Amino acid sequence: xxxxxxxxxxxxxxxxxxxxxxxxxxxxxxxxxxxxxxxxxxxxxxxxxxxxxxxxxxxxxxxxxxxxxxxxxxxxxxxxxxxxxxxxxxxxxxxxxxxxxxxxxxxxxxxxxxxxxxxxxxxxxxxxxxxxxxxxxxxxxxxxxxxxxxxxxxxxxxxxxxxxxxxxxxxxxxxxxxxxxxxxxxxxxxxxxxxxxxxxxxxxxxxxxxxxxxxxxxxxxxxxxxxxxxxxxxxxxxxxxxxxxxxxxxxxxxxxx
Length: 257
Fold this sequence. Notes:
alpha/beta, Rossmann fold, 45% helix
């Protein structure tokens, strides 16, 4: 299992496909790990060198202090470690905020940008601060049972119970302090004023039924990023899992178009 040193944390990653092909980096959402991208990696490895990593404090990556800038610099460190000059980047939810930071501050390393189920300001500072405090005090069990309703539609919960259970189990086993540190990052993350600085080709993906980062949030990003496209898929917040085929089709079309 490969790891790399990101300065203040040791992070876990996985690669699929030929390193000679164009690189695509996939960034996970809060409370998940790189396994959430299994379907996309399997489909896209024929065309891309697919790189997935566990965001710090998630999966097999070590915990460490977290800000959106730090999460963005982790991606730059990963590209440096792999010797990749430029890559396409796709991040979902918190990973989408990481992508926004990269598009603003590290555009020279990003060829194309996909911002999925995200917003320039996700939630409220009070909400994230309370979530961080709850997890630090009570552990991951305190929030695990409520995750499916935040992540998926009721229809998907009923027709794919094994997938939902697997992702909830991943959430239960996350490091509580690592999760809380990322909540701290989201508490302070507000990129609304800087979003128009993004100049790389961008696709925004929104879930039609997402109550966390809505279609309106996706439209807001599309309107403020020059030339951005918007794709709406029939899913809630974890759209790459719930609407995997539609998500992958939109991703492939944008990256190869």
